Structure prediction request, 151 residues.
Amino acid sequence: MGMGAQVGSAISGLAEAAAQSAESGDNLIGIDEVQRCLNRSRASVYRYTNTDPRNLNPPFNPRKLNPEYRSDQKEPLMFHPNEVARFARDVLRIKEVTVEVLNSPSTATQQLLGSILDELRAIRGLLSEAEGRPTSLESRRDQHDQARPAA
Prediction:
């Protein structure tokens, strides 16, 4: 497989991984996706990764593939697609690496929030129209105050 095929594989792999992670909402990809993106063996990806058995979260190393923060040694290594693209471009020298950020499809929650927003805008419009007019409560209070004799 030539370098052009690897570049194309890395680019399409990163775009696919970004799309999958956008759907899951966390925008992170695992070792398997990184392996596909970089077209390298699993062992190679582990060799590239910035890990240390004595330090759960070692400091950033520009020559290594830096995983995201972990709170436990047993948590799987997760990577941000931009970090994978940076590593591919700067360290592996794969040219023309692009990361596509794809909008996730509209979910039921997003649709519900959109309808709530529309409803709130309609309420605001009605309230701003009614600001100049007295409300029925205010007119009743005025009538009630006039009907009572002064003490």
Notes: Confidence is low (pLDDT under 50) at residues 1-8, 17-25. Helices lie at 3-24, 31-38, 42-48, 81-90, 108-130, 136-147.
